[in-house]
Structure formats: C-alpha cells, structure tokens
Amino acid sequence: MTGIAMPRPDADVIARRAEIVRAMRAIVPGEGVVDADVEMRAYETDALTAYRQLPLVVVLPETVEQVATVMRYCHDNGVKLVPRGAGTSLSGGALPVGDGVLLSMMKFNRVLDIDWANRAAVVQPGVTNLGITRAVEGRGFYYAPDPSSQIACSIGGNIAENSGGVHSLKYGLTTNNVLGLEMVLVTGEVIRLGGKHLDSEGYDLLALATGSEGLLGVVTEVTVRILQKPETARAALIGFPSSEEGGQCVADIIAAGIIPGGMEMMDELAINAAEDFVHAGYPREAGALLIVELDGPEAEVDHLLAAVEAIARRNNAGSVRVSTSEEERLRFWAGRKAAFPAVGRISPDYLCMDGTIPRKALPQVLTRMRELGEKHGLRCANVFHAGDGNLHPLILYDANKPGELAAAEAFGADILRLCVEVGGVLTGEHGVGIEKRDLMPEMFTEEDLKQQQRVKCAFDPKQLLNPGKVFPVLHRCAELGRMHVHKGQLPFPDIPRF
C-alpha cells in the first residue's frame, strides 16, 4: 500500500462504459479506440511505475476535429479525460483514471513547417523532443531544451510539464523556447495562443498553458524556437573528492559570472553506474563529477574553460579533463543522458525525485540528503542540473520487499520538504502530478491553492481534465472562496477528497 490515492471511480460512468466506447468508435473509427484490458495495459502507468490503473478506454485521434469532438462528448456527458503523450512523465502526470477516457496524442507526430527566416518550427505534439532537432540539424539548427528522455518524450508532454534539460541553464526551459500553441478546450473549442512572433499582447496565456499538466486543455500544435548551433562547444569532466566540494564549485562558477551551456553533477553511485553502462571515461575514484560545457566563439570558450578549471582547482578538484573532439564531448554527455537507465541496472526499482534549490544551498542540501538516506535506510544516487539547482535524487528500493516503497516515498517527501525549507520549490521540470500533489501545502497556503484552482475552474468548470493531479484537496468550483471548517466539521462531506 502507498500513501497516494486517486479519485474514487464514478459508478454511474463505469455503468455507461459500453455506451461511451461506442461513442468513441463513432468519433475515431478504425483502430483509434482500444478497450480490451490486455491491450490497455500499455497505458496503465507512465514512468512513475509504482502506480497503475487501467483507463476506461483509450482513444488515439488523428485530427484536431476528432480531438475536439471527443472532448465535447466528455464535457457534455460528464466523462473524465486524461491527455497522454509518450508516457515518460516521472510524476504520474499521465496516470489514467478508471472512469475516464485516456486521450493518446501520439498519432499527432508530424513536423508541419520549418520557417528558417523566423527560426521557428511548427510541429504536432507527438513529435519527440529529439525529433525536432533531427528535422533542423541539416542546416545547422537545433531545439535547445533537451531532457534526458529526449529520444522518447513528446513535445506535447514537454509543454505539459515545462521540461528542461542539461542545456536549460543558458537556453531556458520549454516555456522560454515555445512561441505558440493550438489548444482544444474541454468544451471542444479550438484556440490559438502566441505564434511565430516574439511577444503577444494581453495576458500571457501561453506561459499559463505551459506547465499546466493537462489540466486546462489538450495541445494539438506547437510552434517552437530553433537556434543556430554555436561555433564551438567543449565540455570538461571535473572530479571532486566529495559532492559538497563539487556543489561549492558550481556556486563559484556562477558567482564569477560564467553561464555554461550546461552544468551537470553526479555523485559516486551514479558515476559508476553510468560508467558501467556507457564507458564514457568517467573518473571512478571521484566522489562527485561535474560536467561543464562552454559554447560560443572558440576564443571565448578557451578563455572560459581556463577560468572554470582555475575555480575547480580552488575547490580541490582531483581531475580535470577537457574534450578535444566533438565525439569526445558527446561521449561525456552520453553517460549523463543514460544515468537514469544505468541506475536501473543496480536496483530493482527507484523513485526519481525532482526539486529545485538556490545554488548556494547545494553543499548543505547534499549533506542533509545523505543523512536522510541513513534515516530511511535507503541508498540515493544523485544526478542533477547543478547550474540551475534542479535536483534529481534517485531513491533506490525493492518493491518486492515489504515497506520499502513506503520508505522511498517518505524519503522523497523529506527531500522535497528540505528543498522548500532552504528556499526552493517542489518541482523544477517533472511537474506535480500525483507524486507531489499532497506536498503542495508545504509550499502554498490554502488561499494560494484556491487561487490556482480558480484558474482551473475558468478553463474546466466541471473538473474533468486530468483529475486527481496537482491539487491535494478537491473543491467544487462554486465552493472556492467560501470553504471553512466549523468545529472540526468540513462542509459538503459528500465530496470526495484525496
């Protein structure tokens, strides 16, 4: 048993399943509807595999009109709907509900337009993150945000979670690289936000939609910024005796005014797992490894690499190795990109956490995390975007051993509380989903959460889109602003709260 619960399925909707499936087949004919249990198993979870739930039915539309019609039907008939991309969410953001339609957008997989003059690409949401770069690299361009799962994760999912990546320190998260969206609202209305132009007038609804975790609408088209590849890019592998010394080096590099293209850190456990998996040439004797990439004009890169090496030596670096070719630079990054699957080889299961802290707190937080591991009796491999303080602790456990999943959850919750305690936030790029949902009050007051839910109600008054995610307590839209507890008794006791 785990401490995370999903909303109780609506028995009335379950009873109407055959009717709902027939309606979906009428909207999306052919093989676009999956309703057999054995076939729906592929959709019962996302990358947060500790939690599983079969959906009511899976629908794979191919046109915007089909998406709009499915959503209109769900709205008019009180049926919940969960949008899904590639299913790589690490926060349970794409976890289905038993009384809802799972809307898979992976047939929306075409690159629609590349506008070289405006440095923009228009793609469908099922195109993979790496697929965008592949489409433009022939002319020396690329798409900057690069999550470790970029070979598989979809741009639609990146929009939902505001994904980052190893180069987000210099080039920004998804929200900094998206120019426009086409989105279908729960009523079936199709809207456009932004475009190929740099800025839009009025409220910044594009930023609101980016990172909204499927709670406000379903994205059917994305316009992204593409960048020209820098003249030179070189990476340095820097080994330290301890994570604390590596963390201090990160803070010192940023304090010196140097903004690397990417700056990643791994601890000893992750270093050796990645080296066993990829053979990237990592220093096995190091207690921590820092990968620092500088890009730009060759003379600038050479100057900054020398400055970074000097800072590293002042922080007791045991080894410094700078790439001498593009192949070597890519090999340095291959180990980091493969760190998550590499750690999967040394533990039957792991929880990948995601919190963000001020850079100056890195040494303190790494020390505290080691103490928390001893408290909970579990190992933790640290892999993180050091430059922007985005931590990804991998908590190792064995689900077959009684109590270990619960211990991993408790360990993860303590890490996230620590992030908030030192002035950070609960998530940097994986989203809240179900994983961090019940920790939201650690960061937000009840009034803060109500205000966020008012935005949700403006887009989805029946609260049918991706239910059970983000908000720890369910409020009816009509209640918001009037909820109070009198003598320990909650009003509207019939409303399920999870």
CATH architecture of the largest domain: 2-Layer Sandwich
Q: How many individual domains?
A: 4
Report the total helices. 16
Which of globular, elongated, flat, extended, rod-shaped describes the shape? globular
Main sheet, how many strands, which sense, barrel? 8 strands, antiparallel
Let me know the number of strands.
Answer: 19
Q: Give the overall pLDDT as a whole number.
A: 93
Counting helices, strands and paired strands, the structural category is alpha+beta
Please name the CATH topology of the largest domain.
Uridine Diphospho-n-acetylenolpyruvylglucosamine Reductase, domain 3
- Helix amount: 25-40%
What fraction of the residues are assigned to beta strands by DSSP?
15-25%
- Distance, first to last CA: 15 Å
Uncertain residue ranges: none
CATH class of the largest domain: Alpha Beta
Q: Give me the Rg, rounded.
A: 23 Å
Pfam family, one: FAD_binding_4
Domain FAD-binding PCMH-type: 51-229
InterPro entries: FAD-bd_oxidored_4_C, FAD-bd_PCMH, FAD-bd_PCMH-like_sf, FAD-bd_PCMH_sub2, FAD-linked_Oxase-like_C, FAD-linked_OxidoTrans_Type4, Oxid_FAD_bind_N, Vanillyl_alc_oxidase_C-sub2
Cofactor: FAD
Itemize the secondary structure elements and their pairings.
Elements: H1 11-15, H2 17-27, E1 33-34, H3 37-40, E2 57-59, H4 64-77, E3 80-84, E4 100-104, E5 111-115, E6 120-123, H5 129-136, E7 141-142, H6 155-161, H7 168-171, E8 178-184, E9 190-194, H8 205-209, E10 218-225, E11 227-228, E12 232-240, H9 243-255, E13 262-267, H10 268-278, E14 288-296, H11 298-314, E15 319-322, H12 326-337, H13 339-343, E16 349-352, E17 355-356, H14 362-376, E18 380-385, E19 390-397, H15 404-421, H16 446-459
Parallel strand pairs: 2-4, 3-4
Antiparallel strand pairs: 1-2, 5-6, 6-10, 7-11, 8-9, 8-10, 12-14, 12-15, 13-14, 13-18, 16-19, 17-19, 18-19
Protein name: FAD-binding protein
Domain FAD-binding PCMH-type: 51-229
Cofactor: FAD
